[in-house]
Amino acid sequence: MPQAFTLSDRVSRAITRVLRRLGVHRSTTHDVVTRTRKMALDAGPMAVQDLSRQLAEEFADDLKRLIEQQAFAWVPLSSKYSRRKQMLRLDPRILIATGRYVRSIRPVQQPDGSWVVGIPPTPLFPGSRHTLQDLARWLEFGTRNMPARPHWRPAMSLWKTKSYQAKLALKHGVSTYLRRRGFR
Fold first, then answer.
1. Model confidence over 93-121: pLDDT tens digits?
2. 66 and 72 in contact (C-beta within 8 Å)?
3. CA 82, 141, 129: angle at the middle one, nearest 5?
4. pTM of the prediction?
């Protein structure tokens, strides 16, 4: 069973960078609130977009790591397919065979500037009418001939726990900083 994430150093560094851009850092200031508001108005959208990109990159990395470590409770491969993978000298792990699918998971910027994690619509192989996105859907939900091996939904569930922990850490860090500077 997958375990809940703890706040990683990478998320902590990303939050610290955003706070620094907003003017909240360890240097002493005489009016943190006013300065933070001004900088948030000036640089806030870019800082939030940068944080969005960094969090999307981290989610993609986490999803890849969970797949590579076989962290989900999936139905095992059929013995026939296991033998075929062995004969073709493919990776014996579930969802990995050649590694192309896992490598294709990446953050993508949307037209509105937001970031999402997804799979590009590239063909499965030259001349195929099916894409890697089709493969992702088949793997996640299964087909008539293949059991579902969900990985996007469970990873997102774990990510919600992680983002909640990041939110609490951010809130605690900012309130501690302000308290130390004499703000209540």
1. 999 999 999 999 999 988 887 888 999 99
2. yes
3. 80
4. 0.65
